[in-house]
Task: inverse folding
């Protein structure tokens, strides 16, 4: 493996220990600083230093991170440019692992854990919405989860947008969409300015994944996914995988969050999360159609009484 050229170097007092992530515009490092301690340092790619749009996005991410102060959002520490011209953003180092990896190995998750995770995500996103910010790329890869503490941290505002942005200040051209197809709301595909309802759709996708261990569409390619998002309903939660059973109320809440029409969803991302937590707590359906050995034994003993 080729050695990362920045690992082991120092940028503006931050000692880069190792590369921990990589996106389209920036690379993320675990770094240490004499004052700030351990941080995550996002560094804009060298080839994008002269790209005005890329630099604007980078600066905007920092400004959004500063505006959204919440326990479930990583704290923005410092934005700067080194003497060598390197743009960097220092943010809080979040303990745990990406929710994406945790879900792959652990989902379907217990319902109480799903409620805990979804409520925390909704709280973080609601805080962004209260500050006039739509995230637009809510997905497990942008969420850090500590399964021991049951704590979520929202990591990335890289492609977020302000709800009051003027048309001539947009960084996404009309007719283009940003986000991740597996989690993006159908209305985002037009490239028009989206509302907070788009984040609710993405959170419903995450909830579906945590509950079922799969996603609401079974497309095999981006082209197929694009077509399904525009023309087909999502797979009903109770048909997500054989043997997985939820009460009708649980399925109804999740599927309402996944409505193609933004107006058909809940009034806020927080309302969706609270309603889901309530129906999950009240749901008496077993997680599987097969109730397991212990339940079968109880039934046998009951029959002999």
Result:
């Amino acid at each position: 493996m080729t050695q990362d050229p920045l690992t082991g170097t120092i940028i503006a007092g931050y000692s880069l220990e190792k590369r921990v992530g990589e996106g389209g515009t920036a690379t993320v490092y675990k770094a240490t600083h004499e004052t700030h301690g351990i941080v995550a340092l996002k560094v804009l790619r060298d080839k994008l230093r002269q790209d005005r749009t890329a630099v604007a996005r980078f600066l905007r991410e920092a400004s959004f991170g500063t505006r959204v102060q919440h326990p479930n959002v990583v704290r923005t520490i410092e934005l700067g440019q080194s003497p060598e011209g390197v743009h960097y953003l220092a943010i809080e180092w979040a303990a745990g692992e990406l929710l994406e990896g945790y879900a792959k190995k652990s989902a379907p998750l217990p319902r109480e854990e799903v409620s805990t995770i979804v409520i925390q995500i909704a709280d973080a996103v609601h805080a962004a919405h209260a500050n006039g910010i739509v995230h637009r790329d809510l997905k497990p890869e942008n969420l850090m989860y500590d399964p021991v503490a049951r704590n979520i941290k929202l990591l990335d505002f890289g492609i977020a947008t302000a709800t009051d942005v003027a048309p001539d200040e947009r960084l996404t051209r009309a007719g283009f969409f940003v986000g991740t197809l597996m989690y993006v709301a159908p209305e985002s595909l037009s490239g028009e300015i989206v509302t907070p309802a788009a984040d609710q759709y993405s959170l419903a996708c995450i909830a579906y994944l945590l509950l079922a261990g799969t996603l609401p569409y079974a497309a095999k390619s981006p082209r197929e996914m694009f077509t399904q998002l525009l023309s087909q309903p999502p797979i009903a939660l109770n048909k997500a995988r054989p043997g997985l059973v939820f009460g009708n109320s649980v399925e109804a809440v999740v599927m309402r969050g996944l409505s193609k029409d933004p107006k058909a969803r809940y009034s806020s991302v927080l309302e969706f999360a609270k309603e889901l937590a309530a129906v999950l707590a009240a749901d008496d359906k077993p997680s599987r159609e097969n109730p397991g050995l212990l339940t079968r034994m109880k039934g046998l003993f009951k029959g002999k009484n």
